[in-house]
């Protein structure tokens, strides 16, 4: 990782091959890589500056490897994360179990981390409904247990528009939240207020 300043750490979590890297690629470079699947080894880092009102917020995105053999490493990467995008593949029920595992882990150790639960590869089930292996209501019920604020969105990376909108929606939201936190910090610094209090965790769901 470069010595670049990062305002908010975002971590991508989820089983291998669910589309974490593709999401980051889409968001950072606006492209979808076609070709043989290449699994992430350990984790990859990318810094993405975003203009929010009159400030530039730099998101540090950690794209972790989904393979269970890297599980211990992934724990290092979510430490201190402001947001986690927990992905699962709508056509793979095991990936949903794995997503729940990461949500539980985050809730245990990163109380302040916002969690975005994202069902990916929506295009595959568009073409063939029988491929869907994670029921919409199962995901909704699961998310309902944690929070009443749900955002149900289609996440399909092979379709430019839809996926780009979803990425922008998620990452922009994180930047705006970080922007308000920075503003609050500046204001508190001026007044000498301690902002190091614990807040409840947040949970959003993106699924279709
Ligand atoms: N059809 C379809 N394929 C996708 C989508 N997103 C990713 N893929 C494909 O799924 C495979 C895995 O994508 P990656 O983004 O590398 O998955 P990952 O979760 O980062 O995998 P790991 O690095 O092993 O953790 C690749 O072959 C992608 O082209 C999608 O929205 N639709």
Automatic annotation (TrEMBL):
A single MF term (Gene Ontology): GTP binding
GO cellular component: autophagosome; autophagosome membrane; cytosol; endocytic vesicle; endomembrane system; endosome; perinuclear region of cytoplasm; spindle
Record Gene3D superfamilies: P-loop containing nucleotide triphosphate hydrolases
Membrane topology: Lipid-anchor
Record bears the keyword Cell membrane: no
EC number: 3.6.5.2
Cofactors required: Mg(2+)
Family, similarity comment: Belongs to the small GTPase superfamily. Rab family.
Matching NCBIfam families: small_GTP
Protein name as catalogued: Ras-related protein Rab-24
Organism: Lepisosteus oculatus
């Amino acid at each position: 990782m470069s010595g670049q300043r990062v305002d908010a750490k975002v971590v991508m979590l989820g089983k291998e091959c669910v589309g974490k890297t593709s999401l980051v690629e889409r968001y950072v470079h606006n492209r979808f890589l076609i070709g043989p699947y290449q699994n992430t080894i350990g984790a990859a880092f990318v810094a993405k500056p975003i203009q929010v009102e009159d400030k530039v917020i730099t998101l540090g995105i950690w794209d972790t490897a989904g393979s269970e053999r890297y599980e211990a490493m992934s724990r290092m990467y979510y430490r201190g994360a402001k947001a986690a995008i927990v992905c699962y593949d709508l056509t793979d029920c095991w990936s949903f179990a794995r997503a729940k595992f990461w949500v539980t882990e985050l809730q245990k150790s990163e109380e302040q981390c916002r969690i975005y639960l994202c069902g990916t590869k929506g295009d595959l089930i568009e073409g063939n409904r029988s491929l869907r292996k994670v029921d919409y209501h199962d995901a909704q019920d699961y998310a309902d247990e944690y929070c009443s604020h749900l955002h149900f969105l289609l996440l399909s990376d092979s379709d430019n528009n839809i996926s780009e909108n979803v990425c922008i929606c998620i990452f922009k939201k994180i930047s705006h939240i970080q922007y308000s936190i920075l503003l609050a910090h500046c204001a508190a610094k001026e007044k000498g207020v301690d902002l190091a209090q614990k807040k409840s965790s947040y949970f959003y769901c993106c699924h279709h």
